[in-house]
């Protein structure tokens, strides 16, 4: 198995894309720290599924926008598993609104979790990965971070920020054999996208060449590629996994 | 002093791949020992582990030479 003996930390892993990522990494042999913010029961469900596969896992509550929480989450992961090979920054929220109506706290919440959270978590794992002289950091951005999207100024700004952060981190850490890549998912069916109206969904379908919405599994398999030796010579890249929406 | 210097020297030799004879008190990590900024960050991390202490980012920024490191560590022991 291509991730045999590896240790992964996946943020926002109790539901949606993060859950599928955690399960896929475990399927390929990794032990996984399953981070969640509010959904403890769902996170424990993911842990149980991973244990059924014969891997080790535990759930860890943490608000990724809180520096101290993040530091202790990373510490706990390393204490528990003895090392840390793979970080998947997946935790994210939406607070959609038109720019003209967007409140300061809608902007701040999304930037804090979706962008600052990636910064804090990346910073916290870097020490361990530098010591190991190896590491894989995979940031889940979004295709709207590349294309823009009305009603999502905060989310788009955060995701575009994640893509820039990915490139800079990749350059800073390349000499220590740590690769940093991003994935920009398109329309993936999850709790987060279920909130969109049918009208919006129909509009989106029109601009997807593959003419269907993606599934969390489609993202998880690309994460596992970026987490493995198969992607050893790639860093600083953003892979669009969006049915061809943005080329 | 001698013991701290000895341990600091060992960390520097291991990390930067320099000769022990190059590690003089006045030697600057960047100018004389060929370290880049990331090397210095890493060196500070290793010194933290070696001496079981935390070196704050502000303090770390003031450590530029071997002597700075030795003096700082001694003041904290």
UniProtKB/TrEMBL annotation, chain A:
It is an enzyme of class 1 (oxidoreductase). NADP(+) binds at residues 12-15, 90, 155-159, 188. The active site is at 155 (proton acceptor). Its EC number is 1.1.1.100. Residues 6-186 form the Ketoreductase domain. The keyword NADP applies. Keywords: Fatty acid biosynthesis, Fatty acid metabolism, Lipid biosynthesis, Lipid metabolism, NADP, Oxidoreductase. GO terms for biological process: fatty acid biosynthetic process. It holds the Pfam family adh_short_C2. It catalyses: a (3R)-hydroxyacyl-[ACP] + NADP(+) = a 3-oxoacyl-[ACP] + NADPH + H(+). The keyword Lipid metabolism applies. PANTHER family: 3-OXOACYL-(ACYL-CARRIER-PROTEIN) REDUCTASE, 3-OXOACYL-[ACYL-CARRIER-PROTEIN] REDUCTASE FABG. Catalyzes the NADPH-dependent reduction of beta-ketoacyl-ACP substrates to beta-hydroxyacyl-ACP products, the first reductive step in the elongation cycle of fatty acid biosynthesis. This is 3-oxoacyl-[acyl-carrier-protein] reductase.
Automatic annotation (TrEMBL), chain B:
4'-phosphopantetheine is transferred from CoA to a specific serine of apo-ACP by AcpS. This modification is essential for activity because fatty acids are bound in thioester linkage to the sulfhydryl of the prosthetic group. One of its GO terms (molecular function) is acyl carrier activity. It is found in: Cytoplasm. The modification O-(pantetheine 4'-phosphoryl)serine is found at residue 37. One of its GO terms (biological process) is lipid A biosynthetic process. InterPro entries: ACP (IPR003231), ACP-like_sf (IPR036736), PP-bd_ACP (IPR009081), Ppantetheine_attach_site (IPR006162). One of its GO terms (cellular component) is cytosol. Keywords: Cytoplasm, Fatty acid biosynthesis, Fatty acid metabolism, Lipid biosynthesis, Lipid metabolism, Phosphopantetheine, Phosphoprotein. Pathway: Lipid metabolism; fatty acid biosynthesis. Pfam families: PP-binding. Transmembrane segments: none annotated. Residues 2-77 form the Carrier domain. Belongs to the acyl carrier protein (ACP) family. Carrier of the growing fatty acid chain in fatty acid biosynthesis. This is Acyl carrier protein.
């Amino acid at each position: 198995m291509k991730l045999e003996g590896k240790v992964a930390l996946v943020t926002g892993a109790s539901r949606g894309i993060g859950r599928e990522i955690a399960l896929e990494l475990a399927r390929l042999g990794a032990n996984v720290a399953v981070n969640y913010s509010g959904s403890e029961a769902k996170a424990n469900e993911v842990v149980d599924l991973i244990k059924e596969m014969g891997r080790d896992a535990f759930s860890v509550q943490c608000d990724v926008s809180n520096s101290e929480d993040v530091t202790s989450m990373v510490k706990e992961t390393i204490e528990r598993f003895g090392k840390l090979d793979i970080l998947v920054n997946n935790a994210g929220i939406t607070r959609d609104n038109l720019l003209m109506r967007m409140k300061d706290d809608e902007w701040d919440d999304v930037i804090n979790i979706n962008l600052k959270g990636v910064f804090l978590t990346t910073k916290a794992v870097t020490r361990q990965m530098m010591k190991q002289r190896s590491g894989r950091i995979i940031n889940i951005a979004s295709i709207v971070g590349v294309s823009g999207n009305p009603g999502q100024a905060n989310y788009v700004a955060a995701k575009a920020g994640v893509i820039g952060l990915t490139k800079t981190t990749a350059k800073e850490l390349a000499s220590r054999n740590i690769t940093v890549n991003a994935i920009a998912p398109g329309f993936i069916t999850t709790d987060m996208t279920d909130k969109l109206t049918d009208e919006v969904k129909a509009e989106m379908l029109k601009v997807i060449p593959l003419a269907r919405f993606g599934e969390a599994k489609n993202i998880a398999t690309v994460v596992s590629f970026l987490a493995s030796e198969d992607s050893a010579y790639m860093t600083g890249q953003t892979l669009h996994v969006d049915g061809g929406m943005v080329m | 002093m001698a013991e701290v210097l000895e341990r600091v020297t060992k960390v520097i030799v291991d990390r930067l791949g320099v000769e022990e004879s190059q590690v003089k008190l006045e030697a600057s990590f960047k100018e004389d020992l060929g370290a880049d900024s990331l090397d210095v960050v890493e060196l500070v991390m290793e010194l933290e582990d070696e001496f079981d202490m935390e070196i704050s980012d502000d303090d770390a920024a003031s450590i530029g030479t071997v002597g700075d490191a030795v003096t700082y560590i001694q003041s904290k022991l």
